[in-house]
Amino acid sequence: MAYFRIARRTPLTPEEAWRRVTDWPRHSAPFTRVDGGERSVLARTRIGPLAFDDPMDVVEWSPPHRCRLEKRGRTVRGWAEIEVAPHPDGGAVVMWRESLRLRGVPRAADPVVAWAGRRVFGRQLDVLLPGAEERRA
What we know:
Elements: E1 2-10, H1 14-21, E2 32-36, E3 40-47, E4 50-62, E5 66-72, E6 76-86, E7 92-102, H2 110-128, E8 133-135
Antiparallel strand pairs: 1-7, 1-8, 2-3, 3-4, 4-5, 5-6, 6-7
């Protein structure tokens, strides 16, 4: 499975950072729409005639600190965790960890999938958390 993690420090309070990173429709991006709540999340990706769903169960929901999602789709399997913690100097630190397997993609490509995941989800955190700074994960 391709594994990656991303960390961002934000001047936002932990509660506001949590609210933003768990507001699932805000995760929508070009080609992908996201909807969900405290029990499930569905990301739908469409690029021309190519489309797939990424259904996820929320298996842990501990606001405003931790959320764990289990990916159970035909195309994407694995899990994602989001953790929010106060930073000692103020604001918050958001940690995103993800392990995924893409159907039809060989395991030898896991490093490329992890690199792409860091880029895509890192960019998403930058949008969700304005003013955030990248942190060593």
